[in-house]
Amino acid sequence: MEILPPLWEPFVREDDNMDPSFMELMKHEGINTVYKDKDGQIVVGIETADHAAMMIKKSVITSDMKVEVVGEIVPMVVPSIKSTKDKWRPAPGGVSIGHYNITAGTLGMLVRKKDTGEVLILSNNHVLANSNAGKAGDIIYQPGPYDLDGGDDSPCIFSRGVAGFFNGCYWLVSKFHPNGRPTTRFKAYDSDWSQYVIGNLHSFYPIDFSGGTNVIDAALAKPLEPLDEYVKDEVLGIGKPLEVRTPSIGLPVWKSGRTTGVTNNTIKTVDGTVKVSYGGNLTAIFVHQIFTDNMVSGGDSGSVLFEDPTQHPVGLVFAGSNKISIMNPISEVFKWGNLEVL
Predict the structure, then answer these.
(1) Partner of 247 at 20 to 30 A CA spacing, among 139, 182, 183, 201?
(2) What is the per-residue burial (b if ≥16 Cβ within 10 Å, else e) of 229-257?
(3) Which residues of the chain have a pLDDT value below 50?
């Protein structure tokens, strides 16, 4: 399995001219986003109103800045009709997918690697690679594991030493779990869980959780073959993706995701800085991000943001709160992976 060389190299934009005051502001607890609006005024996103009052009292936020409450920013991986949470073959963009050891996110779209010609599935690192914990070859499910879980009322209760079919449930086995015990419960279907495998992790761009800056949360999976039986070059409710375009403030956009389906909004900035809480005390700072008002929910991570009403990709959904949604610039994702639209 090929690992892209850029995986292990620092990701630096040639035109990186970010306002240094953004990173100074991000050092303060409670400040989660920073960007400049269309008039050039700095807009500071605060987790709570109490944080805002504290930052104003400390003169961190000054009178020439705008303040908005954005809540805690988290990856949009789980907390729709045929449902986006169901098994799809061939699977289009906009439906549930996930690394074997996560909950569920969204299959973004199909892309082609320019140097090898490989057709690959695009989504987020935290969806396909379990936030840096995955390795090339790991199993990818469609739908994602959360959508195969029996839930709280399921008879699928873990019994040590049992693998395979038990009590009306199919279990993951230690072959894919180094700790030797299943971590995901599967409903009983007409055959075993292997029918939900759609491919394997191909490569991912590592997220820097050490305090440095990130631009993308992205990963690629190689679908099983024959391709036309497993994946489909279109996005549910939107259509076949066209060439990538550069986003701008005020641009109408739409996306198709596992949880909220097709939603629309307008870009607020294309150069935002955001602090994202990944859980387990892992926090990452992202720069040069696209912001919109809330248009996604848990499970929509990996959705592709398109120019509305066209099929031109502009961003890759990866995080948000109940106030704001955050996307990577998809041009940077394509640059990293040496990708093109099919």
Answers:
(1) 201
(2) ebbbbbbbbbeebeebeebebebebbbbb
(3) 1-10, 80-81, 150-191
Separation between Cα atoms, residue 255 and residue 304, nearest integer Å: 6
Structure tokens at 43: 């807009």
> How many whole angstroms separate alpha carbon 80 and alpha carbon 85?
7
Q: How far apart are CA 65 and CA 37, in angstroms?
A: 10
Rg over CA atoms, the chain: 20
Point out which residues pair with 170 in neighbouring strands.
165, 186
What does the pLDDT look like over 47-78, one tens digit per residue? 988 888 888 888 899 999 999 999 999 887 66
pLDDT given for residue 51 in this prediction: 85
CA-wise closest residue to 99 among 231, 235, 197? 197
The 10 Å Cβ neighbour count of residue 178 is 7
C-alpha span between 288 and 335 (Å, rounded): 15
Q: What is the model's pLDDT at position 36?
A: 92
